[in-house]
Amino acid sequence: MAESTVAEVMDELAALEDPKVRAVNEKHGDDHGVNLTKLRAVAKRLKTQQELAQQLWATGDTAARLLALLTCRPKAFERDELDVMLREARTPKVHDWLVNYVVKKNPHAEDLRVAWTADSDPVVASAGWALTTERVAKKPEGLDLSGLLDVIEAEMKDAPDRLQWAMNHCLAQIGIEHAEYRARAIGIGERLRVLEDYPTPPNCTSPFAPIWISEMVRRQSEK
After folding, report:
1. Fewest CB atoms within 10 A around its CB: which of 15, 18, 53, 160?
2. pTM score of the predicted model
3. How far apart are the first and last CA of the chain?
4. How many angstroms separate the Cα of 118 from the Cα of each of 128, 178, 184?
5. d(CA 22, CA 115)
6. Could you give the CA distance from residue 186 to residue 175 in angstroms, rounded to a whole number?
7. pLDDT digits (tens, 9 = 90+) for 136-154
8. DSSP assignment of 41-97, as one string?
9. Residue closest to 98 by CA, chosen among 128, 55, 122
10. pLDDT (0 to 100) of residue 29
């Protein structure tokens, strides 16, 4: 198959634009109107094309950037490239996919985790916390879990929304994965009450850490 050009892909994305999808996405801060199932189908057809992905990212268009993150080669990016990309990724979905689909698979992930967690920009810091949560679950060796709980206890209550959400996820993950810290994690959640009233659809688990931790531990015990 001949490689697609940026112009061809942009035309295809424009044809997929749906005003109803855009209206829903904009409520969550995402400025695009392409159904994600259809976007993934385009990515599946294009397969991995690093050069095209970089060109799509450079357009600045949110749908194009999401497609770029699905068609790029995660290990091909240099550390500073990813740092710039994260700071450019101001919509929540692009930010989330960049961290989860690309940075987590990149050899510079740990270096970026440390740098981003300490960043003064709360959106950048939230990416650092997301990477920390990944380590809590999959590679906790060397992490100071007690120290992380200290920071969460001191800073999560007043953190901006996206940073607060990421810190809360880390709190829950520590409680779920590490029994020795479970009581403390639940206690922090109960004292801070962060996301206690978050609207949760039926059959979904509340993001309120004490409920989240207890429910996931219950499920694990049933396996």
Report:
1. 15
2. 0.92
3. 45
4. 8, 24, 24
5. 34
6. 7
7. 999 999 999 999 999 999 9
8. HHHHHH---HHHHHHHHHT--HHHHHHHHHHS-GGG--HHHHHHHHHH--SHHHHHH
9. 128
10. 86
